[in-house]
Amino acid sequence: MHECILYEKLDDTRVHCLVCPRDCKIADGRAGFCGVRHNRGGTLYAITYGKITSAASDPIEKKPLFHFHPGTRVFSVGSAGCNLRCVHCQNWQIAHERLDDAVNAGGALNLPGLSELSPAQAVAAAKANDCGGIAWTYNEPTIWLEYTIDTAKLCRDAGLYTVYVTNGYATEAAVDAIGPYLDAYRVDVKGFTDAFYKQLAGVSNWRSILAAAERAKKRWGCHVEIVTNVIPTLNDDERQLRDIAEWIVGALGPETPWHVTRFIPYLDLANLPATPTATLNRARQIGLDAGLSFVYVGNDPGNPGENTYCPGCGALVIERSGYMTNPCMVEGATCAGCGQDLNLRRS
Description:
Blueprint: E1 2-3, E2 7-9, E3 15-17, E4 25-26, E5 37-40, E6 43-46, E7 51-52, E8 54-59, E9 73-78, H1 92-95, E10 115-116, H2 119-128, E11 133-136, H3 145-158, E12 161-166, H4 172-178, E13 184-188, H5 194-201, H6 207-218, E14 223-230, H7 238-252, E15 258-262, H8 277-289, E16 295-298, E17 308-309, E18 316-321, E19 324-326, E20 330-331, E21 334-335
Parallel strand pairs: 9-11, 11-12, 12-13, 13-14, 14-15, 15-16
Antiparallel strand pairs: 1-6, 2-3, 3-4, 5-6, 7-10, 8-9, 17-18, 18-19, 20-21
């Protein structure tokens, strides 16, 4: 078993987890809301440390990250559990699973579908697959904090970049723990009202997500990109979309990429329609009108909103089709036509 960081011991063998804003106080023999941080005799353990559900070599654009090492491949690794319960989660089989009931008398996690992958093995696999780095994805990486830190340190030594694909529901302390070893922070901003976050994810203190993203960028220098899955009738109104765009401009800077992606009916939201192309195009325009330089349409094959256009001269500088990337007018990190900075992170 691997002892957690960021917790405090309470009376009567309870512990207080400090990793996410759920602020769990956990009784002996139980886990926090995420299901993977388990109290055993007054000590909090990360029961999924080194245990994975998925691993794959992916285009970095699949995360999606469009301005971070474009055209490279990333070794994507995921485990189980999550600190949110999104009602449309595509990975609910692993994200919503309670794991603490599978901890045996000796404290080990015994659950089919989990494989072992140590930090050193993850780095070796990334290099063997010609990947430029490692992304922690598929489930929420923050609840896997100790493993991601240990692996990220080895990535730094091996010359690999590091990526969190995250819901952003993390404390300042958690961001500060991984921040020194993290290169990219791809975070969901799912909506912009209390009612929406309560309905979709079961949380009310969602503004901590915004604070975490700001901290990742401003304190730790992470490259940040934002994703909003645009859901008909829930967060596709002009007010929420405009508020998200204006927050990005003011808090993270107009050069920060914003991905507005098509919702696909799933799980508890299977009754809703998929997002129309017109809605996605309108969301993109709202972002551009708010002052963002780079707004992308996602999950809508063939949409020209997948491409990167120079905010200075308007030229098509990076053409995309699916996960194929063609940097047709790029020189270093600038537009080859006018020299405009394109906010491309390559090192």
